Amino acid sequence: QVQLVESGGGLVQAGGSLRLSCAASGSITDYMMWHRQAPGQPRELVAGITRDGNTDYADSVKGRFTISRDNAKNAMYLQMNSLKPEDTAVYYCNALVTGPGRMENYWGPGTQVTVSS
């Protein structure tokens, strides 16, 4: 079992920055991701990171967001710079835990990010 808790969301003006954190307790996580969901929109993948530090980003955030993780703390972060109103969404931490013949998928409750114009 893994419990995920996000923090760091809030209200920021366009052009500003926020840093989201995701604390994981329980099993060691393998692939970790940030997703977001804006009102009336489907949930979308923002960025992902492997335990080795390989990263991937949605085109809409490349060059502005940076995902990172601290394996010793079983934590993940999302540094968001040059924020735009269209980045407004609930941001969710998502983690995959793999083992022999199994893959478990966990989600945090989400943290609201609001970017004002």
List key phrases describing it.
seven-stranded mixed sheet; 11 strands; 0% helix; globular; mainly beta; 117 residues
Question: Could you write a compact summary of the structure shown?
Answer:
The protein has no helices and eleven strands. It has strands at 2-7, 10-13, 18-26, 32-37, 44-49, 55-57, 65-70, 75-80, 89-99, 102-107, 111-116. Strands 2, 4, 5, 6, 9, 10 and 11 form a seven-stranded mixed sheet that branches.
Structure write-up:
Helix content is 0%, strand content 59%. The mean pLDDT is 95. It is an all-beta fold. A hairpin with a 6-residue loop joins β4 and β5 (44-49). The strands form two sheets. Strands 2, 4, 5, 6, 9, 10 and 11 form a seven-stranded mixed sheet that branches. The chain has a four-stranded antiparallel sheet with strand order 1-3-8-7, with no helix packed on it. The chain has strands spanning 2-7, 10-13, 18-26, 32-37, 44-49, 55-57, 65-70, 75-80, 89-99, 102-107, 111-116. The protein contains no helices and eleven strands.
Can you lay out the helices and strands and say which pair or pack?
Layout: E1 2-7, E2 10-13, E3 18-26, E4 32-37, E5 44-49, E6 55-57, E7 65-70, E8 75-80, E9 89-99, E10 102-107, E11 111-116
Parallel strand pairs: 2-11
Antiparallel strand pairs: 1-3, 3-8, 4-5, 4-9, 5-6, 7-8, 9-10, 9-11
